[in-house]
Amino acid sequence: MRYISTRGQTPPESFQDAVLTGLAPDGGLLVPETIPDVRDRLDAWRELSFQDLALEIVSLFCDDIPRPDLARLIERAYASFDHPEVTPTVQVGDQHILELWHGPTLAFKDVALQLLGHLFEYILEARGQSLNILGATSGDTGSAAIAGVRGRGNIHIFIMFPRGRTSRVQELQMTTVGDANVHALSIDGSFDDCQALLKATFGDLEIKQGMRLGAVNSVNWARVMAQIVYYFHAGLRQRAPVSFAVPTGNFGDIFAGWLAARMGLPVERLILATNENDILSVFFNTGVYRRGQVRHTISPSMDIQVASNFERFLYYLCGEDAQRLSQHMADFAERGELRFEAGGAGGIDPLFQARAVDAATTLATIRGTWCSHGYLLDPHTAVGVAAAAELAPGAPVICLATAHPAKFPEAVQEAVGEDLAHHPAVDALAGKPVRSVELPADVDAVKAFVREHGIR
Q: Is 432 a catalytic residue?
């Protein structure tokens, strides 16, 4: 399997090179040359464990790591999860909740980033190389990425987060890590500012190559690849076409679901749920993708206006025409807007339904689910559950639970009136020493810090 850029100006790469490259040199995102069709394997996969299923799916996209080695990497990656099924599905009323928060940082990002950390280590050791990872986070990616590579001798990680705009728990999960190879960078700006700094730094080929920069954000193909697995794991156990409700800000998680459907998983629909930062839900309902001002909400990981992973979907929407996609992205960069024909009753893509959910509805969903079923939702998961209840009332839907409620105790307490959102890993953060570096939202400041503190 080879990987090509959505912008069409980067030579095809192997899987291992794609993992280390992250963002393509031409500014695009890497995608596989072909999407495998697995419809003839579904029955054989139906009863596989998560790890065995991961091996089957990842092997389709990774043909330059021997299968026995890949199996060991997958086993090590998911040994850190506290549930034997890794991503179990539980029934809550009419809906099924796909719990993606059983990893070390209690967020769905662990599913991909635990594997990515082991892939990085394997590839770098084989090549005798080192890597400086630069990432931007709206909350969960940063702590999950740090957990995946902390303490590794041939990797330094620099995570930019928007100062004061993540939950307190999310910030502590990043700033209480004492390993010397971890650098938490508190940026004076929004997540979109952090994301822009990331892309600008990767766009400087001198520092990207000279400092051997790698990416952990969902611009890295391996992130999306790993997330495909839990759609198959949950969907195949239902033995009928299923719908998924996905709270999303950066589009990576739901894009993995779209890929699973393209590969042959019977998916009835993908319910795209946003908070008040509704750029994605507006696009799928109108065909207009327009940048706005970031609104700060009780679901901060979704407080995003420019979805970094959306370009991959647009590439396929453009018929895999890199030149057409590049023009759209140039227009968006210049005007902050792009338009596609909505395509009649089916919308942009008939697989998608989209809805924005406000804070009041999010809190009411947390409260109602707790009162009716004794099940506690975090505010991001509640956005997905609320969208599913509105768009598919009474129908069985698999709702992706993207974080443990203990990561957002203030929102949960506001919703239910009690201090219920706890987890031992979160409670243990209290009183730990913290360290971070405050930087302005300035690309030169970020580059200078990476140059000074990175591994060469």
A: no
Q: Is 41 exposed, middle or buried (0-12, 13-18, 19+ CB in 10 A)?
A: middle
139 burial via Cβ count (<10 Å: 0-12, 13-18, 19+): buried
Residue type, 258: W
Among residues 32, 26, 34, the alpha carbon closest in space to that of 325 is found at: 26
Q: In angstroms, rounded to a whole number, what is the distance separating the alpha carbons of residues 283 and 451?
A: 39
Can you tell me the distance from the alpha carbon of 430 to that of 68, in angstroms, rounded to the nearest whole number?
41
Length of the chain: 456
pLDDT values of the chain reduced to their tens digit, one per residue, 456 residues: 999 999 999 999 999 999 999 889 999 999 999 999 999 999 999 999 999 999 999 999 999 999 999 999 999 999 999 999 999 999 999 899 999 999 999 999 999 999 999 999 999 999 999 999 999 998 788 999 999 999 988 999 999 999 998 889 999 999 999 999 999 999 999 988 998 999 899 989 889 889 999 988 888 999 999 999 999 999 999 988 999 999 998 899 999 999 999 999 999 999 999 999 999 999 999 999 999 998 999 998 898 888 889 999 999 999 999 999 999 999 999 999 999 876 544 568 999 999 999 999 999 999 999 999 999 999 999 999 999 999 998 888 999 999 999 999 999 999 999 999 999 999 999 989 999 999 999 999 999 999 999 998
Helices (H), 107-190: 109-127, 140-149, 168-175
Three-class DSSP category at 329: helix
Name the DSSP class of 131. E
What is the distance in angstroms between the CA of the first residue and the CA of the last residue of the chain? Answer: 30
Which domains occur in the chain, in start order?
Answer: 89-106+221-421 (3.40.50.1100)
Pull the structure tokens for residue 106.
């209690």
3-state secondary structure of 32: strand
Integer CA distances (angstroms), 451 to 4, 213, 447, in order: 29, 11, 6
pTM listed for this prediction? 0.94
Which member of 109, 208, 407, 447 is catalytic? 109
